[in-house]
Amino acid sequence: MDKTIRRLCRFFIVIFTVLALYLGYVNLYLGPSLATSPYNRRLAAIEEKIPRGTIYDRNGEILAETKSQKRIYPLGEDAVHVVGFLSRRYGRTGLERVYDQYLLGISRENELQSFINKALGRVQKGHDVVVTLDAALQKKAAEMLGNRKGAVVALDPRTGEILVLASSPSFNPESLEENVSVENTRYDLLLKDEDSPLVNRATQGAYPPGSTFKLVTGGGMLTWNPSTSYRSIDCKGEITVEGFTLPDIAVHGRTDFDRAIALSCNTFFARGGLELGPDKLYKAAEAFGVTKNPWEGKTQEVPCRAGTLTPPEKMTKAQIVSTAIGQGELLVSPLHMALVAAAVANDGKIMKPHLLDRVQTQDEGRIITKYTPQVWLEPLGQTAARKIKRAMQEAVENGTAVRAAIPGITVAGKTGSAQNPSGDPHAWFVGFAPVEEPKIAVAVIIENGGAGGRAAAPIAREIMRMALKFGQ
Amino acid sequence: MAYNKKVHMLRRLERKLLLRVAAYLFIGTGVLFLEHPDSGRELFTAVVIITCIYFALNQFWNYVHFAGDPYMLSLIFVLCSTSLILLYRLNPIYAARQFLWFIVGLTALAVSSKINYRKLADYKYLYAAGGALLLLLPVFFGAERGGAKSWLQIGSITIQTSEFVKILLVLFLASYLSQKSTELVREKQSFKGFKLPSLEEWGPLLMMLGISLIFLVFQKDLGATLIFYGTFLAMLYISTAKLSYIIMGSLLFLIGGSATYFIFDHVKMRVETWINPLQYAETAGYQVIQSLLAFGYGGLTGAGLGEGFPHFIPAVHTDFIFAAAAEELGLAGALALLMVYILLIYLGFKIAARARDNFSKLLAAGFTSLMALQIFIIIGGTTKLLPLTGVTLPFLSYGGSSLVSNCIIVGLLMNISSTRI
């Protein structure tokens, strides 16, 4: 009997050893691998214990803060597409999502500190996030968009710092979970809204760029056909290729590059596009980053839609002339067009657009991480950039963009009125100021707003005026 | 004189060990005190009382020249201290109630360590009858809790009868098998070279299986069934040394078990939840998922006492107390507790191997197997190693019935260990 007892004892020790090993697997692998499951209430519970950091704009204005357990957004619907919202039910969006770990102070850079805090029984605190946005400009942009659908983007061409990302229609980030009817919460209604207020039109919008795209076509022409800068053509008010007739807004007669930009001559750029051919036209779009997502492979600070156009191998002559003037199958976001203006403003270099300025501790303001500006693309040489710059200045002074002019400041701009299937043309304006030393580049679109010079240029003017008056 | 000297040595060793565990309890209480500064007085009073009871038990044994195993009491002390600390952290009321049960339990332990247990061998049919009665009572008068109908309400106290039935089961099997084992070993028939016992020897085996399955069906108590049947097989193996019995028994149980899987929805649900808990994460799998998350949050060193979120697990103070321990004390703490259990099991089998007669051996090995199975099944259940079955974790879970019955088991084990000299 002793033998069987010993055997049984051994059996139990073996299965308990298996259990011990399995415990290790559960504690160190299986359990942690489930940690991100939506059924883990721990994450939310931990977060509720941590005082969440504040989001500040570039001037120290509060964009999001926690006051007595509630997240407050002083800019409300004016900045919700960038700042985002925090909802137990609908998750988190915008900066609240992207910089969540910093705001909770649980980022990798900080592991040691949080361990020390834990050991000393200190309350774990979230970090403050300072972004490049300018609250005053953002408010102004939202105010000027008003009830119209559209978007405003402004950035500093020298650094890529995004100053404004406004999208309309918008929504209030607070009390999204509130029931407005028996079945619908406020958020449910937003989801069902045909005007898609949840979409950030500034970066996710897909619009035909219209004549503002002539900057890209012009850039390609100056790069690959340098004679463009001194040649002129005779504009007869329309151009016909392979039976397709592209009308022009007017008979511009003798037209050189500056005049073509200033008066937005279709014929000039249609011809230029034909001379470039589909490959180079496509390459020009690529060079300006139109087909790219600036955050590709990096932390996606804002969800962004890369622009799309007909691939070169499928581009017919008729499509070339349409694409060259920003029509056809070409669709871009306002941010992309702001970056085109920034390329011209910054002597041909596009700085990587970004929203994060720095992350710092709540109390001492010790910097955890800081963003360093970097060049993203270089679509233009300096001479080509300066040539376009002068032409854009001409457009504001004597051309289609006169409504963007600001007394005492030199402004460069390009308007667009993009034909689209949903009604009146979309009104576009892209530009920058001051021309000598550009500090702000802007893109504005008003959906179905008609002529760009009339609807979009004044908004850009006010944004630029305000930005430059308050001195950056 | 030599015997008395030996007793004094054993009890002195026991005292030394108890002193170390008392230090452990004081440190744990210190942590609780830091989190509940207002209840310092009641906490430390309770701790002093508990410690005094253990030392009083030690002194009592010393006085009556009790030569039982010197290690077991300190192992129980470790587990009970951990239990009280965890329960206090979960809900001070649980700890207060469990504290009273500890006094009852230790009294039961003291009594069962000194009775003349050999006389117990004479009442086997009384155990069978008593066990059957205890099992059947809750079916008719019982309260259903968590899908299992195995509680009996008497006044304000609810008693989980299966906790006591298991003691009667081991007593019955030990007395039965110590008398009949020789008959079971004999082989009368052989079938194609495979030796089989006759039908009359199969009788008790099939009866046990039948009772277990009926028990499973009527009380819906999957865990208790597994433990009873497993203990039965273990004791059968010890007394007959025939692995074929065990294989046969397991196969029969598997067949019976699979039948219940197809017939009864609650069994089917348990198994499906075990295979894919995430699919039932909001219903039947909720408990296991929350438990696994607790284990994961504990990691290697644990969140620290009071720093985890054990309340997310339903029934954390009873069946899932081990998950709470793993969350706040980490893998390190969980393994330490498991180590204590392994030591306890090892000691139990050592006592069985050294016992003088077959009845004592069977009794000790039976009780030890019973405890081992129960520990394995519930820890396996909370970690998804096995399908979840609601049983308590000996000495750690909240619950009077479980604590008292386990104290009686340990008392009897120590009683058996004292007679070998």
Chain pair forming the biggest interface? A-B, 33 and 50 residues
Shape summary of chain A:
elongated
- Count of the domains of chain A: 2
In the CATH hierarchy, the architecture of the largest domain in chain A is: 3-Layer(aba) Sandwich
Helix percent band of chain B? over 70%
Q: First CA to last CA of chain A: what distance?
A: 92 Å
Task: Please render the helix and strand layout as text.
The complex is a heterodimer of chains A (472) and B (421).
Chain A: H1 2-34, H2 41-49, E1 55-56, E2 62-67, E3 70-72, H3 80-83, E4 86-87, E5 91-92, H4 94-98, H5 100-104, H6 111-120, E6 127-131, H7 135-145, E7 150-155, E8 162-168, H8 186-192, H9 201-204, H10 214-224, E9 232-235, E10 238-241, E11 244-247, E12 253-256, H11 257-263, H12 266-287, H13 317-324, H14 334-345, E13 350-351, E14 356-361, E15 367-370, E16 375-377, H15 382-398, E17 412-420, E18 423-433, E19 440-446, H16 452-455, H17 457-469
Parallel strand pairs in A: 1-6
Antiparallel strand pairs in A: 1-2, 2-3, 4-5, 6-14, 7-8, 7-19, 9-12, 10-11, 13-16, 14-15, 17-18, 18-19
Chain B: H1 2-35, H2 40-63, H3 72-90, H4 92-114, H5 124-141, E1 143-145, E2 148-154, E3 157-160, H6 161-185, E4 189-191, E5 194-196, H7 199-219, H8 222-240, H9 243-263, H10 265-275, H11 286-298, H12 321-354, H13 358-382, H14 400-418
Antiparallel strand pairs in B: 1-2, 2-3, 4-5
Helix pairs in contact in B: 1-2, 1-3, 2-4, 3-4, 3-12, 4-14, 5-6, 6-8, 6-13, 6-14, 7-8, 7-9, 8-9, 8-13, 9-10, 11-12, 12-13, 12-14, 13-14
